[in-house]
């Protein structure tokens, strides 16, 4: 294959099909408002803010693809980026797989980014892409932990749980998204390492099971996941601070 015909585009797959049970009753989490705009639109803009990302695939709630397409059409998004919408599945792993299936052949680098991390800064996105382009098959942004972590023997809800061990905190990282991959490696992981039940909690973990190397680059405090109601309070505050700073 000549250099010119080699696949080279970078695409972002955004799983957005979750219900957001931990956030409480309401619309699917990705469609809930943050600063008056659906969380999903923030996440899409965060990916499209990278000049390297030329395609964004949004994985919508299973029965919500037309609504998501409509949302993308009615919000201002960069013209240089293409957008696709596909319906998602019952687990995050299934939703990511459905997004990967929609990628055109010329995509060589794939980011997988939670719609639930709407405020990731573009520098973090670019750092992940650069590490993949430099040759790492799988890259995760991550931060050191503030809390000490215990491994426990899970018990009944509300019952004391015996502690099994205390991992050395300095060796632990809390991982975020976007996670970046060489496309072939990620496809192979989803084909060979698909896990049943709840599936894998992140894509890099599936690549690890293949035996392929995964590296960590610095994450960002503002790339946190909106999971519980307090996270939404923090996200609103971060957004308000950004908007105030942009005003000056
Ligand atoms: N079947 C699913 C489940 C999750 N996700 C996506 O995976 C990301 C991370 O998941 P999480 O924050 O756990 O979202 P939910 O599954 O919606 O949350 P909950 O477990 O509280 O219902 C989210 O962007 C979510 O939309 C998905 O695309 N398809
Ligand atoms: C992919 C992820 O955001 C990395 O921290 C996380 O594992 C998603 O987990 P969830 O079970 O979907 O909340």
TrEMBL record:
Keyword Cytoplasm: no
GO molecular function terms noted in the UniProt entry: 2-C-methyl-D-erythritol 4-phosphate cytidylyltransferase activity
Family of this protein: Belongs to the IspD/TarI cytidylyltransferase family. IspD subfamily.
Pfam families with a match to the protein in the record: IspD
Protein name: 2-C-methyl-D-erythritol 4-phosphate cytidylyltransferase
Residues carrying the site annotation Positions MEP for the nucleophilic attack: 169, 225
Domain of life: Bacteria
Top-rank EC class of the record's enzyme: transferase
Annotated pathway: Isoprenoid biosynthesis; isopentenyl diphosphate biosynthesis via DXP pathway; isopentenyl diphosphate from 1-deoxy-D-xylulose 5-phosphate: step 2/6
Record-marked site positions (Transition state stabilizer): 22, 29
EC number, as in UniProt: 2.7.7.60
Catalyzed reaction equations: 2-C-methyl-D-erythritol 4-phosphate + CTP + H(+) = 4-CDP-2-C-methyl-D-erythritol + diphosphate
Primary gene name: ispD
Signal peptide: none
Segments crossing the lipid bilayer: none
NCBIfam families: ispD
InterPro entries in the record: IspD, IspD/TarI, IspD/TarI_cytidylyltransf_bact, ISPD_synthase_CS, Nucleotide-diphossugar_trans
UniProt cross-references to HAMAP family, sorted A to Z: IspD (MF_00108)
Function: Catalyzes the formation of 4-diphosphocytidyl-2-C-methyl-D-erythritol from CTP and 2-C-methyl-D-erythritol 4-phosphate (MEP).
Organism: Streptomyces poriferorum
Keywords, comma-separated and alphabetical: Isoprene biosynthesis, Nucleotidyltransferase, Transferase
């Amino acid at each position: 294959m000549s250099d010119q015909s080699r696949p080279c585009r970078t695409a972002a797959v955004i799983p957005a099909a979750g219900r957001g049970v931990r956030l409480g009753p309401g619309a699917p989490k990705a469609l809930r408002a943050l600063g008056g705009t659906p969380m999903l639109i923030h996440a899409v803009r965060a990916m499209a803010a990278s000049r390297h990302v030329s395609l964004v695939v949004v994985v919508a709630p299973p029965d919500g693809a037309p609504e998501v397409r409509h949302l993308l059409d009615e919000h201002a998004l960069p013209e240089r980026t293409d957008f696709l919408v596909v319906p998602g599945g019952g687990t995050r792993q299934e939703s990511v797989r459905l997004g990967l299936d929609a990628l055109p052949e010329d995509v060589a680098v794939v980011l997988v980014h939670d719609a639930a991390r709407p405020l990731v800064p573009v520098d973090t996105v670019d750092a992940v892409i650069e590490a993949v382009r430099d040759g790492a098959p799988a890259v995760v942004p991550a931060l050191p932990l503030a809390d000490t972590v215990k491994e426990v023997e899970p018990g009944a809800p509300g019952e004391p749980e015996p502690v099994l061990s205390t991992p050395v905190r300095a060796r632990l990282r809390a991982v975020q998204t976007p996670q970046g991959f060489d496309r072939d490696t990620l496809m192979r992981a989803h084909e060979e390492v698909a896990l049943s039940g709840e599936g894998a909690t992140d894509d890099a973990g599936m690549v690890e099971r293949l035996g392929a190397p995964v590296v960590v680059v610095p994450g960002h405090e503002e790339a946190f996941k909106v999971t519980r109601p307090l996270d939404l309070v923090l996200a609103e505050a971060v957004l308000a601070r950004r908007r105030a700073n942009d005003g000056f």
